[in-house]
Amino acid sequence: MFTKILIANRGEIACRVIKTARKMGIATVAVYSDADRDAVHVEMADEAVHIGPSPATQSYLVPEKIIAACKATGAEAVHPGYGFLSERASFCEALEKEGIVFIGPKPRAIRAMGDKIESKKFANAAKVSTVPGWLGVIENADHAEKIAGEIGYPVMIKASAGGGGKGMRIAWSRAEVRDGFDRARSEAKSSFGDDRVFIEKFVVDPRHIEIQVLADAHGNALYLGERECSIQRRNQKVVEEAPSPFLDAKTRKAMGEQSVALARAVDYQSAGTVEFIVDNEKNFYFLEMNTRLQVEHPVTELVTGIDLVEQMIRIAAGEKLAIKQSDVKLNGWAVESRLYAEDPYRNFLPSIGRLTRYRPPEEGQFGDIVIRNDTGVTEGSEISMFYDPMVAKLCTWAPTRLAAIDAMSEALDSFVVDGIAHNIPFLAALMQHPRWRDGRLSTGFIAEEYPDGFAPIVPDNEEKAVLASIATAVELLRRDRLDRLGGRLAPHSGALKRDWVVKIGEEYLSASVLEGMISIPMELDLSIDGGKALTVVSDWRPGDLIWRGTVGDRRIAAQIRPVLNGFGIAWKGMSVTARAMLPRTAELERLMPEKVAPDTSKMLLCPMPGLVVSIAVAEGQEVKAGETLAVVEAMKMENVLRAERDLTVSKLNAKPGDSLAVDAVIMEFA
Known about the structure:
By secondary structure, the protein is an alpha+beta fold.
């Protein structure tokens, strides 16, 4: 077994590998760029080596720097994590030449399966069912258009060396093929240094289901069940689960055996994932094989009890698999939510900045529930524009699917993140969605259910009563605390005031205190808008970020943020501003004039911090609705900004190469 390994990665996956290595008694070496000088993985490792500037192309993607770090520290092996150099056969060979072990498959397997075009050719030769498509070199947009017409629309344009949704476009028409081809090639070149793309038939309403495989150097191979990865946005996975709510035992076995056969065919030696698209009739088609550890591997670990990182290390050290296929049992259900630094209220645009608060829910086993959070940040960490926007992977396990979803819902409500925009509100709302809870999924789920983007869930009457009850309880404690401060001239003390008005958003609700007193812990009976009595029980204290307790028979975990003249309450995807006040105050408050937002309709604002890739118009040019105005790159993704209506460009305020802040004015219109 190795005594020291280097992790050629960053963030949560580097931390994840370090945890297992530490458990196995193996010393670890971290590498870091300028942007990651104070990163968590650097602090966790036994040693750390600086490898260059912030851009990945000058640090994490430079094999020579990784090898030099191995030599300087005496690391015997390298775990690549995912992304970066994890699927680059030349890196594996360079390590072998230096006598350093690559903790992953051999170069032949990486080449055969790691390249999407070559892997499909190989799969076809091995009699594996694949999606119809064109696997040859596509010369230009005209060639792409011709191929797409022969295959039949819709088609998927994909980067050969791609991953993580980058370099991928769906085209429903000839015009979309041309634009998608250009964008896919551009993203592929900037992200992977390889601009080759291929085209295949896009299966309508497919599920994305993948099989986890393990194989050693002694001819042993097995599969560890499947992961359902159909909840995606822009081809980027958002929520995963294991097992799939769709597969039956027969289909699972067929997919698993086909995946193992494919692994054996390329002499695969490590953990790997065979991805399939599955139609409504449970027909499955080989999509690609990822010759590395997957981002979503924790859900497989939770339902099988098998540490995949440990297995990768042991296989790389030459050990035989200690488990057989008959030993693999799927126990319970696991769900993973990817926490991204992106704003769900602004079409999920990337966000950067410092985590002024970062307080994930407590990890561990709590009765029948397990909570796990894989992360590479802590409070005070900087979310950089240079790397992927994923902040953490929150996982829950429970005996049943709905129990795991409910546990995830409460865990998300308890996850405090301030300083950046993030997608927790969307994830929390998703956990309440009837279609998700029923398991009626496809890769088009988000686009279909949120066609106009995401907006906070509007609470129904019962939920408004819960929110108003929380707001009343919070306000009573806030006022009581103020009364206890010394030197106050006119405290609110005296008899407990029974009648209140709670403003939830723009709606006013009456709140009556029926029974109870102000105390910590608190127990009150409230009536909202004349409804039935609700017993409110909580040990919340002013200043706590999470309000925990019960309202009626509902168990609640809601986030509380002070705002001007009230509180922000976030709960189950709802995000409201609440203000509890005395009736006379409410009467006067209704008379306050509304604040009018500034008019930005004649400006193109930069929707996220990013780099201007191109400006497609000139001053004085007339453009039609839908035409491209500019392209802005953020966190490795190119975002096309289009005209919302017919207009004339009056002034350009930015040029290609400019680095812009959010809401910077790119251009103005007449």
